[in-house]
Amino acid sequence: MIDIQQNSPIELLQKLGFWQSGEKISQISVPGESNMNLVLRIQTNQGSYILKQSKSYVRKYPQIPAPISRIEIEYRFLELLSTDPYLASLSPKVLHYDSTDHLMLLENLGEGSDYLSIYGGLRQLQPDELIRLVQYLMHLHQLQIADFPNTDGMRTLNHEHIFEFPFLEENGFNLNDIQSGLQEVSIPFKRDTLLKENIHSLGMRYLEAGKTLMHGDFFPGSWLQVASGIKIIDPEFGGLGDPEFDLGVFLAHLDLAQQDEQLSKLVRETYTLPLEWSLVQQYRGVELLRRLIGIAQLPVSLSLDEKKSLLALAKTYLLS
């Protein structure tokens, strides 16, 4: 396949079969941090686009292998969302898809920024923003899905980094490199037999295919603020599973970003579809744990004591 990189010359990208007659690329840039895939913004004399390509590894962590077919998951996910006017209004439109080269061309939603700044206390999520995010999940979880691509590879990758790696006492990842004392703080959780049994059981459930389409990575890095409002991007971990997983991840990141507790209550008040809320809390707990003591670290501004408190809270979510 054609191997595109951030520094690929315009001449290489111009050869792709995506462009209209007479369309010429004038500029290539990187729109923002991307964990899984190569992502470029392409400016031409006729428009602006987002180009994505999946590789056989995780872009942010090249040492970690990843299913190259994940771009098909995202493509099929976005195509399904295009059938629902509300979801389509919050999602990028697919313009071209190339399964051979694992490429997808999307509309450029415009200049904007993700919501990662909420972790550093630079912004508070507003109630109207939260309601819109919850409504997105409700529309998503109600889609009637006849079939969906096999997501076992991506599910297995995610399972390892959510339910297994963070809880290995000797995993080769020294948390003191993240924050002094964090490695020592993590040890009791890695040695808690009952906690790890619950996490294992939850992980086995996560690996099972479900009937509800879930986003699979519903955190602030997947929320984009542009002039027309909030958009939701990067559903490469999407697939059929538990809707509770999306809600649990959502709530965990409100915890990590130290958002007002009223927002967590508003999530439950706004999401009115049937749910097993005890399962939501379990997924919330394991997401908190893996973000604090796993490899997928976030730009949080938390003291060691604040992290201790969140780890203890996560444990109560899993064991209550």
Concise synopsis of the structure shown:
By secondary structure, the protein is of the alpha+beta class.
Describe this structure in words.
The protein contains 11 helices and 10 strands. The chain is α+β, with helices and mostly antiparallel strands and 320 residues long. A 5-stranded antiparallel sheet has the order 1-2-3-5-4. A 3-stranded antiparallel sheet has the order 6-8-9, with helices on one face. It has a two-stranded antiparallel sheet with strand order 7-10. Helix 4 packs parallel to helix 9. The model has no long low-confidence stretch (mean pLDDT 95).
Keywords, please?
320 residues; alpha+beta; three-stranded antiparallel β-sheet; Aminoglycoside 3'-phosphotransferase, Chain: A, domain 2; globular; five-stranded antiparallel β-sheet; 41% helix; single chain; Phosphorylase Kinase, domain 1
Topology of this protein?
Elements: H1 10-14, E1 25-29, E2 38-44, E3 48-53, H2 70-81, H3 85-89, E4 94-98, E5 103-107, E6 112-114, H4 127-141, H5 152-164, H6 182-190, H7 193-207, E7 212-214, E8 223-226, E9 229-232, E10 239-241, H8 243-256, H9 261-270, H10 277-293, H11 304-319
Shape: globular
CATH level-1 class of the largest domain: Alpha Beta
Task: Specify the CATH homologous superfamily of the largest domain.
Answer: Aminoglycoside phosphotransferase (APH), C-terminal lobe
Radius of gyration: 20 Å
Helix content: 40-55%
Total number of strands = 10
List the uncertain runs: none
- CATH topology descriptor of the largest domain: Aminoglycoside 3'-phosphotransferase, Chain: A, domain 2
Overall SS class: alpha+beta
